[in-house]
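Task 17 of the worksheet. Students: predict the tertiary structure of the chain below and write it out as structure tokens. Keep your answer in the requested format; marks are given for formatting as well as content.
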Amino acid sequence: MHKLAGIELGGTKTVVVLGAQGRIDERVEFSTTEPAETLDRAIAVIEGWRDDKPVDAVGIASFGPIRVDRNAADYGSMLDTPKPGWSGAEVVAPVLEALERPVALDTDVNGAALAEHRHGAGQGCESMVYITIGTGIGGGVLINGAPAHGLLHPEIGHVRLRRAAADGFEGACAFHGDCIEGLLSGPALAARFGTHPSRIDPDNPVWEPVAQDLAELLAMLVLTVSPQRIVVGGGVSGRQRHLLPMAIDRVPALLGGYLRDCTRHKLAGMIVPPTLGDDAGPMGALLLAAKAFDAHPIPTPASHLPV
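Model answer:
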């Protein structure tokens, strides 16, 4: 079986893994700092493994926005991102040059969506959406099991939706103010509450407009993408477990009876937490590595062929 390496490049944390499709054998985590330092460290981890465990291909599941179109002149480069120092950074080129192995790139949320579709909560679904709510908010969309690309890739975190009545919070997104990321991300909640969200009791009424904002996002996805499954992950939703059920409770009213099948019971089975937890992104990166190897297989040296 081919040895694959994956890099989940997150806005806060980078995870480097060695394994195969559906299996993580080794894992190293460290903080995402400036581009050269972060990528050099990820490369060094893989090179260390390669000393005694051949690595056949590498998958990168990265925060963004990042250019994923292989035909674009700036393929593999970061676009204008809120992460300081990363706008314009080359992500694929340093890995490809250092490791000389096939490399595949997609967004971190598309990677997580691929993993949940293949091995987790999205199994058996032709269409699904993976949402992560953490330092930022991202959304990966799969149609017929393949990530949706186009002009760029889905930037669901930056849509602007109807606000909860009488909610005066201005939002915290540097680009759009009160887009969904500016309302629901970890930094946005800290700005909204004036303290870390973990210090706010789940029964506190300040969660009401937050749940309403998340419900607006879920209703929008139901109406626009018509997914069979919406998987909601990330640190905020993982730690604030009351938030997703609160939002689901509000979705039928937002749909206004237009989709009669979308009852509270139906939605509760359709909008779910990730099965793979924190492994979704790294396992997605390994699936991308497998895709890279399938597209550009490395010939087996004659000395390694069976006799």
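Marker's comment: Residues 159 and 179 are 5 Å apart (CA to CA). Residues 207-224 form the longest helix (18 residues).
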